[in-house]
Amino acid sequence: MTLPSFQDPGLLRRALTHRSYRNEHPEAIEDNERLEFLGDAVLDFVTGAWLYNRFPEMTEGQLTRLRAALVRTKQLADFAGAFDLGAELLLGKGEEDTGGRERESLLCATFEAMIGAFYLDSGLDRVASFVQPLLGQASVRVLEQQTDVDARSMLQEWAQAELGLTPIYRTVEEAGPDHIKTFTIQVRIGSEVYGAGVGRSKQTAALAAAEEALARAGLT
């Protein structure tokens, strides 16, 4: 797959410039972190608008969960890989030597930066035209796999995408003799308790807590 054409190639170069390269090359005016911030916002909007029109039968919770899956780190890193962005990155020697070109988080950030640069270069309509076919292909895979995704995975994807936080599970009570013991587990996101669950095993209780948290977040 080929990258979109840029009217200003300098914007694409900036999108491909990691901070480690700029640290070692003072002549590099700017790295890609500000473009990453912009591209993240643009991708969220374009993805949300596409999902709203593509799946009119879905509830808000379903749309939110699907958007989270489409813009999560692994998926965006896969998009970056399809365009071989890793090979085009400008990296410092240390980042290069530690496998930066294959690192998911770095590839994800680079794809977001490229989208931010393309938005500045060509506007929202062209970004949407570029991104929508990628979303179409990815959404088919996501929807096929979603039956295999448990509540804990769904909650984590949503919390990381929407809040930038990872859910934390904590056992708050153990009751009963060993052979019929029950566990109560709370799941926190940040400082808030989002859900609690009870089960005969910690795994079952954590799953119940995640399901309650998803319901509270409007995702089920």
Properties at a glance:
Double Stranded RNA Binding Domain, 2 domains, 11 helices, 220 residues, Ribonuclease iii, N-terminal Endonuclease Domain, Chain A, 3 strands, mainly alpha, single chain
Please characterize this protein's 3D structure.
There is one protein chain. The protein has 220 residues and is mainly alpha-helical. It has 2 domains: 9-147, Ribonuclease III domain (Ribonuclease iii, N-terminal Endonuclease Domain, Chain A, Orthogonal Bundle), CATH 1.10.1520; 152-216, 2-Layer Sandwich (Double Stranded RNA Binding Domain), CATH 3.30.160. The protein has 11 helices and 3 strands. It has helices at 9-15, 19-24, 33-54, 60-70, 73-82, 85-88, 93-97, 104-122, 124-145, 151-163, 202-216, and strands spanning 168-175, 182-189, 192-199. The protein has a 3-stranded antiparallel sheet with strand order 1-2-3, with helices on one face. A hairpin with a 6-residue loop joins β1 (168-175) and β2. α1 (9-15) packs antiparallel against α8. The radius of gyration is 21 Å and the shape is globular. The relative contact order is 0.13.
